[in-house]
Amino acid sequence: MEKTISKYTLFEYLSGRSNPLERQLVEEWIVQKENAETFHRWLLEYETKSPQFIPDQDAALENLLLRLNSAMEYEGDWRKEEGEEERAPSWLWQRSNRFWMVAASVTLLVSCGWWFREPIQYKSYQTAYGQTTDVYLEDGSRVALNSNSKLKVPRLGFWGDVREVALEGEAEFSVSHTIDHKRFVVKTSKKFQVEVLGTTFSVFARPRGTKVALKSGSVRIDYSQNNQRREVMMEPGDLAFLDHEGAVQLERKQDIKTFAPWTEQRYVFNATPVKEIIAMIEENFGQKVNLSDSSIAQRSITGNFKTKNAEELLKTISEVLDLRVEQNGASILLTNN
């Protein structure tokens, strides 16, 4: 019979509080190869939450500075009077040189720890151009990640009172409710975040703009404008976007069918100008589209199109608007017929 244990049982074993039966179960479970990955992940989480030694960084830095000052004063005492050759004894020079090497090594280690802190704390999911994927979080929430997008989640799970993730690009979230009512927050920048109360919504966070579309449930948008914190509550069917002044604008009672259609490989346009469509093609597929005439950019299209790649989408657009697609290597040009 296959033996399984819980994370709590392993933590009790590692802390020395387990009973003889639990110790036997854990030790039998650990030696099984199929449990190795889970064991090392839980072990890292336990050691992170229960460190055996917590350094006092402020005290260590102060001590280091005191030692540096003492070394410099000690070396100065050995200098000869003015007019004589100024040279410290060789043993003192070696000691001082060795001390500076140690100090430099400590500084380098501290800097590296700070620099690589984020990759250690967070796990990233990233999609390539033309690729979409589903990410399932430990709380049961699902994130449909659009192409050319990046999602960062805590590597060791959600701690504290907030389930927080970071998004660059576009994604649709189906957030699970937790029995302890833990909040779910999606951050797109230091000045903009979406707080969720069990819901389905999509977030668009790209260089050309930020949008949030709510399908069900409720969300609150927290943002900063002119160094003042502001918030906006959304209802199902609302579309929120960040305007050029940094304020959030709401469009009520929108067609929810147009929210994140890319999850079904569909593109829904409602009097959408060509300039927005070619920007979307570059964001999702990484292909730059040029226009032979600036007037083409203002022409619009309405419709629901199911396409798998940029080529199919461009072909559909060109047929509807009577345009011609000219491709020369990686370069794509739309011209009038």
Descriptive account of the structure:
The protein has 4 domains: 7-49; 57-115; 121-258, Sandwich (Jelly Rolls), CATH 2.60.120; 265-336, Phage tail protein beta-alpha-beta fold (3-Layer(bab) Sandwich), CATH 3.55.50. α4 packs antiparallel against α5 (90-115). With 337 residues, it is of the alpha+beta class. Helix content is 32%, strand content 33%. The radius of gyration is 29 Å and the shape is elongated. Residues 266-333 form the Protein FecR C-terminal domain. InterPro entries: FecR, FecR_C, Ferrdict_sens_TM.
Write the topology of this structure.
Layout: H1 7-14, H2 20-30, H3 36-49, H4 57-77, H5 90-115, H6 117-121, E1 122-126, E2 133-136, E3 142-145, E4 150-154, E5 162-174, E6 183-189, E7 192-196, E8 200-206, E9 209-216, E10 219-225, E11 228-234, E12 239-242, E13 248-251, E14 266-273, H7 274-285, E15 289-291, E16 300-306, H8 310-321, E17 323-328, E18 331-336
Parallel strand pairs: 5-6, 15-18
Antiparallel strand pairs: 1-4, 2-3, 3-5, 4-5, 5-8, 6-7, 7-10, 8-9, 9-12, 10-11, 12-13, 14-16, 17-18
Distance between the termini: 72 Å
CATH topology name of the largest domain: Jelly Rolls
| Record field, number of beta strands | 18
The CATH class of the largest domain turns out to be: Mainly Beta
Mean pLDDT: 79
Largest sheet: 13 strands, mixed
Unreliable residue runs: 80-88, 109-116
| Helix fraction by DSSP (H/I, runs of at least 4) | 25-40%
| Percent of residues in beta strands | 25-35%
Organism: Dyadobacter endophyticus
Protein name: Anti-sigma factor
InterPro entries: FecR, FecR_C, Ferrdict_sens_TM
